[in-house]
């Protein structure tokens, strides 16, 4: 009897291994499409941050964009904030970060992200998710017209990316899609 | 000696030939007549051929079938018209530099849909008939996305309309 049980276990493990290997079989073109999709989400976030931070953005628009930006993140994700005036890096939940960004005490705020690229390619994890890291450079410029106070800095930030295959129902059909979620955004460098 | 012999034989030959030639001149009127007759026949033939070259009477007009008008260009379907309009809206929203103008265009475009929550599927890749999708969104979110990001990366690859001609589902695809 023991012999049969061990044989059954062996067969089960072999089947599981084959199915995992098959599901991991993603062609380079398909992987490229997923990489591009994830990178596009980061670029979208850069646009959203620029809109939220801009003093020209209407309140209702900024709130709507905050909702869209928040949807890009995994639950509980945090954003690092640094300054040339202090050594510590503060971390805020993304929604709190957006609200603070919108309320910054400047008359003009200009935020641009550039040189957005992978520093660690998306790799499949044992749980089936793909995880990678994208780095970005952020140029921040805040101007106060009355006090003439200007603040500028450039920060390098690393963003963890999670990509997972999910399913949803659309008009009675099951649609499989790639869900891209941004994780914590860590500040790695701050310069003038 | 040989020369003398040769000269003699030539003279003999001449004597032999002369009477023959005379006989021919006796028969010449007959051959002249024959020749004339031949010429006459040839001339008649020539006249005949000239007649052939002369412009023939115009053939009786053959009734030509009336030229069929070119087949009318097939009328664009309701789906094709909707796709054209929507592509214009998408471009207009993505290129808009004024938020209010973009919002007006968004409201106009939303009028084409059964509701603002109409699903929008975006195909990011297709291989062996299997489509890879981005996370499904709604038309309202997608139109605002075009306004916020100012990029129109997709084209309409499939559209579904209801009985009132309103869009009930949209499938987009990444432009190459």
Protein topology:
The complex is a heterodimer of chains A (192) and B (176).
Chain A: H1 2-23, H2 28-53, H3 59-71, E1 78-83, E2 86-93, H4 94-102, E3 108-124, E4 130-143, E5 150-170, E6 173-191
Antiparallel strand pairs in A: 1-2, 3-4, 4-5, 5-6
Chain B: H1 2-53, H2 78-95, H3 99-110, E1 119-127, E2 130-134, E3 137-138, H4 139-149, E4 154-161, E5 167-174
Parallel strand pairs in B: 1-5
Antiparallel strand pairs in B: 1-2, 1-3, 4-5
Helix pairs in contact in B: 2-3, 2-4, 3-4
- Looking at how many chains there are and whether they match, the oligomeric state comes to heterodimer
Q: What structural class results from the helix and strand content of chain A?
A: alpha+beta
| Most residues in contact, chain pair and counts | A-B, 28 and 21 residues
Q: What's the architecture of the domain at 79-174 in chain B, going by CATH? A: Roll
Alpha carbon gap, first and last residue of chain B: 111 Å
Instruction: Work out the number of β strands of chain B.
Output: 5
Give me the CATH architecture of chain A, please. Roll
* Beta strand % of chain B: 15-25%
Strand segment tally of chain A: 6
Question: Could you walk me through the main structural features you see in this protein, from its secondary elements to its overall organization?
Answer:
Chain B: Residues 54-77 are annotated as: Disordered. Chain A has helices at 2-23, 28-53, 59-71, 94-102, and strands at 78-83, 86-93, 108-124, 130-143, 150-170, 173-191. Chain A is α+β, with helices and mostly antiparallel strands. Chain A has a single domain, classed as Nuclear Transport Factor 2, Chain: A. A four-stranded antiparallel sheet of chain A has the order 3-4-5-6, with helices on one face. In chain A, strands 1-2 form a two-stranded antiparallel sheet. The relative contact order of chain A is 0.15. Mean pLDDT of chain A is 90; it is low at 16-22. Chain B has helices at 2-53, 78-95, 99-110, 139-149; strands at 119-127, 130-134, 137-138, 154-161, 167-174. In chain B, a hairpin with a 2-residue loop joins strand 1 (119-127) and strand 2 (130-134). Chain B is built from four helices and five strands; from the N terminus they run H-H-H-E-E-E-H-E-E. In chain B, helix 2 (78-95) runs antiparallel to helix 3 and helix 2 packs parallel to helix 4. In chain B, strands 1, 2, 3, 4 and 5 form a five-stranded mixed sheet that branches. The A-B interface holds A 27, 29-30, 33-34, 36-37, 40, 43-44, 47-48, 51, 58, 61, 64-65, 68, 166, 168, 170-171, 175-180 and B 99, 119, 121, 124-125, 127, 132-136, 141, 144-145, 148-150, 153, 168-169, 174.
């Amino acid at each position: 009897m023991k012999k049969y049980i061990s044989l059954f276990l062996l067969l089960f493990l072999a089947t599981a291994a084959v199915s995992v290997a098959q599901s991991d079989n993603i062609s380079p073109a398909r992987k490229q499409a997923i990489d591009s999709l994830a990178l596009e989400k980061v670029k979208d976030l850069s646009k959203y941050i620029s809109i939220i931070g801009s003093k020209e953005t209407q309140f209702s628009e900024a709130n709507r964009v905050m909702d869209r930006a928040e949807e890009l993140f995994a639950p509980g994700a945090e954003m690092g904030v640094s300054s040339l005036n202090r050594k510590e890096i503060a971390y805020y939940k993304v929604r709190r970060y957006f609200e603070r960004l919108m309320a910054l005490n400047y008359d003009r705020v200009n935020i641009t992200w550039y040189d957005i690229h992978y520093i660690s390619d998306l790799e499949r994890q044992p749980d089936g998710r793909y995880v990678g890291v994208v780095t970005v450079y952020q140029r921040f410029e805040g101007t106060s017209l009355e006090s003439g106070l200007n603040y500028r800095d450039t920060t390098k930030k690393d963003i963890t990316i999670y990509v997972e295959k999910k399913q949803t129902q659309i008009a009675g059909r099951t649609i499989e899609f790639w869900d891209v979620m941004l994780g914590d955004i860590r500040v790695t460098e701050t310069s003038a | 000696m040989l020369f003398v012999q040769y000269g003699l034989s030539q003279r003999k030959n001449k004597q032999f030939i002369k009477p023959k030639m005379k006989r021919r001149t006796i028969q010449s009127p007959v051959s002249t007549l024959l020749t004339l007759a031949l010429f006459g026949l040839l001339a008649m033939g020539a006249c005949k051929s000239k007649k052939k070259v002369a412009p023939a009477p115009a053939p009786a007009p053959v009734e030509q079938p009336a030229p069929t008008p070119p087949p009318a260009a097939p009328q664009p379907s309701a789906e094709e018209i909707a796709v054209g309009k929507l592509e214009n809206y998408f471009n207009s929203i993505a290129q808009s530099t004024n938020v209010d103008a973009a919002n007006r265009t968004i409201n106009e475009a939303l009028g084409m849909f059964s509701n603002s929550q109409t699903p929008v599927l975006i195909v990011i890749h297709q291989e062996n008939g299997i489509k890879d999708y981005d996370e499904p969104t709604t038309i309202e979110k997608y139109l605002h996305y075009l306004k916020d990001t100012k990029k129109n990366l997709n084209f309409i690859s499939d559209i579904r309309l209801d009985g009132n001609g309103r869009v009930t589902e949209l499938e987009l695809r990444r432009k190459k």
